[in-house]
Write a structure and sequence with these properties.
By secondary structure, this protein is an alpha/beta fold. The protein contains four helices and seven strands; from the N terminus they run H-E-H-H-E-E-E-E-H-E-E. The strands form two sheets. Strands 5-4-3-7-6 form a five-stranded mixed beta sheet. Strands 1-2 form a two-stranded parallel sheet.
């Protein structure tokens, strides 16, 4: 019995170590990390506000038919999920160090030409925001640019079709 128990404990311990090693690393710029830390502070500050909403809704009586209570609990669930997600990202963040290699990599700012000039910063998926000029290294544009240098042309396949850009500058 003792031998079986020891083997079981060793198996669980081994699986726990594998799980720790297999955690996803999130590529973040230092600015992205600062933004997530600020978001986390805001989210944590909202906890007391939502707890107050839940307490007030409880005062209305019967919880089985209390829409305010249900809405506050749902809001709390969404908030707690986001807090957990942001904490995991920050705990497993791989901060991108800027380099001057001349090739496109995560953290690079790239100036492209296709009729007009457009500038993108290549970031990890967590920070991607195309409206702010931040594209994911996993997006069609980002993945096509990876490893390329200024002066090269790159053809990007998107749902709208193929587009060719010339890389004017890599910063």
């Amino acid at each position: 019995m003792h031998t079986i128990m020891c083997a079981y404990i060793m198996t669980i311990s081994s699986k726990h170590k594998e799980t720790k090693r297999m955690k996803k690393a999130y590529h973040l710029t230092s600015d992205g990390k600062v933004e997530l830390e600020a978001e986390l502070k805001e989210l944590i500050a909202k906890r007391s506000e939502i707890a107050e909403k839940i307490a007030n809704a409880r005062d209305y009586g019967d919880l089985s038919e209390n829409a305010e209570y249900d809405a506050a609990r749902e809001e709390q669930g969404i908030l707690e999920s986001r807090i957990t997600e942001v904490e995991e990202i920050l705990q497993n963040a791989d901060i991108i160090k800027p380099t001057k290699s001349g090739t496109v990599h995560v953290g690079s700012t790239v100036v492209l030409k296709n009729g007009s000039l457009v500038t993108y910063q290549v970031v990890g998926p967590v920070e991607a925001d195309p409206l702010e000029g931040k594209i994911s290294d996993e997006s069609p544009i980002g993945s096509a640019l990876m490893g390329k240098k200024a002066g090269e042309k790159v053809t990007i396949t998107t749902p709208k079709g193929e587009t060719t850009y010339e890389i004017k500058e890599v910063k």
